[in-house]
Amino acid sequence: MAVNYDQEKQDLTRRNFLSLAANGLIGAGLLGAAAVFGKFFWPNVSYGPPSKFSIGKPTNFGDGAKLNIADQKVSIIRHGDKIGAISMVCQHLGCTVAASPTGYDCPCHGSKYDDKGNVTHGPALVSLFWFDVHPTPSGDLEVDKSKKFSDPDHYYTVT
Amino acid sequence: MKRIREEEIFPRNPNKTYGLMELVKGSSTRVDRGPDDMVSSWPHLLIREAALFAACFAVILALSVFKPAPLELEANPQKPPNPAKAPWYFLGLQELVAYDAFWGGLGIPGLVVIGLMAIPYLDRHHSGIGRWFAKSRRMACTLWTGYVVIVIVLIIIGQYFRGPNWAWYTPWNMPPEVQ
Amino acid sequence: MSVKELRPSGPPPSSGGSGSRRPSTDGPLTKLSKAIYRQAPEVWDNLRPLALFHNIYKSVYRTTAFPKTERERSEAFFNSFLLHIQPAKIEKHALRFTYTFGLGLLSTYLFLLLTISGLLLMFVYVPSVQDAYGRMQDLHSSVSFGYILRGMHFWSANAMIAVVFFHMCRVFYTGAYKAPREFNWVIGVILMVLTLILGFTGYLLPWDQLAFWAITVGAGIAGKANWISDNLNSLPHPPGAPPVPPLGDLTRWALLGSDTVGQEALIRFYVLHVAILPVIITLFIVYHMWRIRKDGGISSPKESPE
Questions:
Q1: Which contacts qualify for A55-63: CB closer than 8 Å, 24 or more apart?
Q2: Residue B178: inside a domain, yes or no?
Q3: What is the pTM of this model?
């Protein structure tokens, strides 16, 4: 009886199944090892500037103030007795926005935001982050960049 | 011509169906093959390769001597330049990104790369190989030209038609602070 | 130059026949040289400059420097390490400049120039946020030939990206991606992507304004992969199933090693640019070239009807 070797090569014989399974196991093992080692590339410690920083006494800011803290990329605004901290990192692709008469403009791709960080012109889709502002025991105000809010109006009210 | 003397230089073996018939002068033996258009790589290929390297090196050297590489101001994380333009080969991408960040930056480029890789598995018609713009491949050539034109137009827009805040400017109205 | 054995000839350099056995007054060096001559008289002949050069050349190259016959010309390619990746004989059609415009070879040459100039630039460059920009200025002011080296790296990189793209256009317009060359086209697309990534990682290194903001935007684009995980999470899923992690943030975090572009990003891009990516692209280039040979050389009109 003639054996059709080509057919045998394509069929899932026991031998083919075993060799497939062995190759699959080796491949899965290598991929798994690589994935576990991939953790190496995710840093556990950040060397950037600290996420909390002091901005001094509330009296530093007059009504209607809009002050840039350039090295933290945060803009401090005061409306009446409410003080807020708006992130100056564009929500589009991370350029630093510049303060403008109408709010904030991004030079990289033309996004525009109003004074409260709401998008007025694309391509950005999301408004600028607001950061948590709270007083410290010394009476200074502190901005915590690890607590951020996607919706505007997260003020600290001066009492 | 009259054969004067028959001399068997290569005696025939009666047990074999083949034998050595004659010796001819020539550069290589070709049996049952028409003349092919082969030439030896030495020196025909080699000399062209060497000339190409010389030309390539000369052009690059001349460019680097007479047009040094640009260096902008030192990086300042507080103040992006306005407009912040990528190198020319990423300006098409930047133009797309200015419309939609995900689709411009990842979606469309990813699909383009997958599409490019798929070309030989979609177009399997075995014709027009080895000729520029073969007539039988007019459709494929037109589609590809369309792709090339889109790439080049996007780069030209990014390079010459985008000014401060990535707004549309014509090259002759470009504010002077933008080169 | 034809290769032939040089037979030992001529008298030995030192006189003093070996026949007479009178007590020697020679110094130890003379004794030694006489002993060598007695045991192996051809040594002196082998040291003659012409013979020495000849034998060293033959041991290195095996083939003559100027082949004349067809056989010698073929051997010149078979026996040479650098040339053996190419065929000893080639179709006339493949040599026509207007068929390939030499674009594939040109991108290889540019990669070679980039490797050499890049290695030399590594002697000057320091991948540190404080020093990198200063070293760039040094290249233009205080390093001999520094600006030429940087210029060569810059222009070769720009030219390579353009040439790779033109090469792809040539291959498309001549239908050279068709069977049996399909997979080599795929390798070519990968090579183009790798070339672009090398360009991307390279231009952070000068630490100038272009570098910083281009990488900021590039990392922002990587962060947009969040779109995928956000959409996956918004699909109906079984209660209690863990959410898909934000893919974009993870990629950005791995790329920059931090939240923003800084020292961590610089050292990561440096290692990628000077070590990891060049090795990967070299492997792909070698495979690309091997496949050209295995797929039957470059495409030819003989392979298909019009």
A1: A55/A85, A55/A133, A55/A140, A55/A141, A55/A142, A55/A143, A56/A140, A56/A141, A57/A139, A57/A140, A57/A141, A58/A83, A58/A141, A58/A158
A2: no
A3: 0.82
